[in-house]
Amino acid sequence: MRGAGPSDEALLERLAAGPDEGALSDLYDRYQAMMYGLAMRITRDPALAQDAVQEAFVGVWRNAARYAVGRSTVRTWMLSIAHHRAIDIVRRRRPTSALPEIETNDPALTAPDVWPEVAQTLDRATIDTAMAALPEAQRQAIQLAYFEGLTQVEIAARTGTPLGTVKSRVRLGLLQMRRTLEGEAA
Amino acid sequence: MNHAEAIELAGLYVLDALDPDERAQVDAHLASCQETHDEFAEVGAVAPALASLAEPAGAPASLKMKVMADYRAGAGAGAGAGKPAAVWDMPRSAAPQVTRQAGRPRFGWVAGLAAVLIIAVVGGFAYTAQQRADREAERSNQVAAAIDVMAQPDATVALLSGTGAADGAHGFAAFPASGAGYLVMVGLPDAPAGQTYQAWYLVDGQATSAGLMTVDAEGYAILDGMSGMAGANLVALTIERAGGVAQPTGDPVAAGELRSNAAAS
Fold first, then answer.
1. Shortest Cα distance, chain A CAs vs residue B194, angstroms
2. Does B33 touch chain A (CB under 8 A)?
């Protein structure tokens, strides 16, 4: 996010350098609505969503030094942490395994790629349209995974689909979304 | 797990849809396989777009209080936050010795920070009390009583530090197992004209007013006779319009997490 005041990266650098409540406060003000909205979509419960965002910000300031400039935007990094925490909270309430304690800093996820920067300029309606254009089975599998926190085994059970099919539906659906959105952004 | 199997799981991996064991297998493969894994980045780049499908929604103001309190309470534990917030870094050479604390019972988790705070509060007050009359003496008694409560082994205590408009202020809230509690703040600037400090209890993110606080000429603000609140996990201060409000309207200018001396000792 850009605008008046320090850049996101500068704020994160300040957090990494030492206690800086002002930096955390600014990052919170910039991203709380996106993080809370995402957590609400996943948990569908205001108290759980607040827990997810609260835990996510602990992850942000504890891992500020691990953020790698250029690999992903601060926005992407923070939303990934919020997603991870919200999914973990949802899973804790089900008889399945919780997520491991990671802060989505995986090299594969944050490999240099300019497209995420482009994707940020796409509006919600465009992304929604790209999602709606997917075959129903692919769209359902992606939504069950991303917004309901189901694992591949749970998706297979929910949809009565073999595991291999679930894997390919999610993978092919994401690749198709990317192609569609790249076309929109071009 | 071979390369093809890992690639097949790329989509589920980037959506956090693998069991921990499966994820660990993919991680191990990514760490050891020399082949390229561009597809992980390709599908991973779609995740930010998916996040955008969620409608932004303003979180309750109390959530920021909790986030900032977490930071203040834990800033010494994580990477990038190697020491407590600067507000607690009182120069010991400038702090008078406080002998009246000798022989007091141990009071658990607050011992380190509270010792500094007690020195600040009592030391600072002792200085002014020598020069002022009855009002300061009354305040001295309140502060001493509050510290007595804070030192009780079964007390619940929050250490508060100021930020924003109250940057540099500090204080504590202390509630005994039974009886009245206190909120003591030091170094508070006057509230802006037409406004006041209002204290809050937070229970599961919901704020309940704990009372209004008036700052005296020396920057002290004390609430006594507080009943405490069952289930409260945070005490915070906001600046509100004169007379107070039913719910906080702005960001906290000071906050602290309530913790039990007994549980943490």
1. 25
2. no
Number of neighbours of residue B79 by Cβ within 10 angstroms: 13
Which contacts qualify for A62-65: CB closer than 8 Å, 24 or more apart?
A: A62/A103, A62/B74, A62/B77, A62/B78, A62/B79, A62/B80, A62/B81, A63/A103, A63/A105, A63/B78, A63/B79, A63/B80, A64/A12, A64/A13, A64/A15, A64/A16, A64/B79, A64/B80, A65/A16, A65/B79, A65/B80
What's the pLDDT at B229?
77
Residues 177-236 (B) with a CB less than 8 A from some CB of A: 204-205
pLDDT in tens, A79-113: 989 999 999 898 887 765 555 555 444 433 444 45
**B62-112 pLDDT, tens per residue?**
888 888 877 877 653 443 333 322 222 222 222 222 222 333 333 333 444
User: Helices A136-146 & A124-132, crossing angle to 10 degrees?
Assistant: 130
